[in-house]
Design brief:
With 289 residues, the chain is α/β, with parallel strands linked by helices. The chain has eleven helices and nine strands. A hairpin with a 2-residue loop joins strand 1 and strand 2.
């Protein structure tokens, strides 16, 4: 499962690599970006921790790597950043390219169980297992024992759910404008109906951060979430962070969830770039314990 390097770009003293590799979980070649901080490029024997950034609907691994400015804080702290794609590509499934919010660019970081999407739409397995194993084997500078996760919108949903379902895999979690209660918003209902089935409500709950935090049995949490008050999708009830906060309170974890409502900010990468350093610092606090 060798990686092919399509480009190497100097960035904040380190290197941003444009990579591709063949993935069995998604039944196709997958593209991603990997930022190696100066600590890793100057001394290949030096192990650095890793932060995964999961992107949102319609995005690829290029969007945040080129507009989110995570590399700035990551270079300062000595953290590698992985920017995966958001879905399989080119599986020739009927309808996969018909809508922006389902299929291509909208894998929702779940393993689909309903045909025909169960043949390749296995983004949860790809992100939590196949991709990290391949990266840690190929890039020996990456420390697979120190990994954190963050994401935006659909990727914020992915970060929260994958962390809550796999607490031993990640040191910390944060999110920008996450789809925090997909079972109760149009985006999530469409995706879950397609990937799991309209009546498979138990599976919906198993991939819904608001439901997962109610029964989370891991250790203490420290969840950082940033949302803009001028985010149209927040206003349209696609994100529902209040439901996540209420569920955390119900579970006695209200002090373990910090949701910052940032005046005037929207759903764009301008907001991500503004608070990227905060989220890298949040991850660093746990990656360097």
């Amino acid at each position: 499962m060798a990686f092919q390097t399509k480009a190497t770009i100097a960035s904040f003293g380190g290197q941003l690599l444009k990579l591709t590799h063949a993935a069995s979980t998604t039944s196709c070649d997958m593209a991603l970006n990997l930022f190696l901080p100066p600590a890793a490029t100057l001394n290949p024997l030096h192990k650095v921790p890793v932060l995964f950034f999961l992107a949102g609907l319609t995005c690829t691994g290029d969007n945040c790597a080129e507009k989110g400015f995570f590399q700035h804080g990551a270079a300062q702290h000595g953290i590698a950043v992985v920017y995966p794609d958001t879905s399989p590509r080119g599986l020739k499934i009927a309808g996969e390219d018909d809508a922006y919010d389902f299929g291509s660019g909208a894998g929702f970081y779940v393993d689909a169980t309903q045909a025909p999407w169960d043949k390749g739409y296995k983004m949860a397995s790809y992100i939590t297992s196949e991709l990290p194993k391949a990266l840690f084997a190929h890039f020996t500078q990456l420390d697979g024992s120190r990994v954190s996760i963050t994401g935006h919108s659909m990727g914020g949903h992915g970060a929260l759910t994958l962390f809550l379902k796999n607490p031993r895999a990640y040191k910390s979690v944060s999110a920008f404008a996450p789809i925090a209660n997909p079972s109760n918003c149009p985006w999530g209902q469409k995706a879950f109906s397609g990937y799991f089935g309209a009546d498979a409500k138990d599976q919906w709950k198993a991939h819904d951060a608001t439901e997962l935090i109610k029964r989370y049995q891991g250790g203490p949490l420290d969840v950082l979430i940033d949302i803009g008050t001028n985010d149209n999708f927040y206003k349209q009830k696609q994100l529902l962070p209040e439901n996540f906060a209420a569920a955390a309170k119900e579970a006695g974890r209200e002090k373990e969830v910090r949701i910052r409502y940032n005046e005037g900010h929207d759903h764009s990468y301008f907001t991500i770039a503004t608070f990227a350093d905060d989220h890298v610092a949040h991850a660093a606090r746990y990656l360097f314990e």
